[in-house]
Design brief:
Elements lengths: L10 H14 L5 H6 L8 E4 L12 E4 L1 H11 L9 H25 L4
């Protein structure tokens, strides 16, 4: 699924999306939750496409420190890791975004968003 790049980078909007992503991801590492069926506190938002290129909600995933490090190691020369941008995009499309839609609807109905 292709998403258009958002308009000019807006730091306040990006920060709002990071907070909303964490809330909708239940502050859990999405890689551990969906790939390993484990709960692990997420403490790092990862901008899959880079903060300046795409900072909308569907381009941000909540990760734990370990997973966030693995993602960034994959982008470095000679970095080898199980977590790549392509795998994160697939995870977002197949699991995270659908779950976020359900959670967003529920939280909106409860008046928490």
């Amino acid at each position: 699924m292709e998403f258009p790049n958002p308009p000019k980078y807006d730091k306040a909007e990006d920060e709002k999306n990071v907070r909303l992503a964490a809330q909708l991801d239940l502050e859990q590492c999405q890689w551990h939750l969906f790939v390993h069926n484990q709960k692990r506190k997420a403490s790092y938002p990862h901008h899959i496409y880079g903060r300046r290129r795409r900072w909308d909600l569907d381009g941000i995933i909540s990760l734990c420190f370990e997973c966030h490090q693995k993602v960034h190691m994959a982008t470095q020369k000679d970095g080898v890791t199980e977590i790549t941008r392509e795998k994160l995009i697939e995870l977002m499309e197949d699991a995270v975004i659908p779950c976020r839609k359900v959670r967003l609807k529920a939280l909106t109905e409860l008046g928490r968003i």
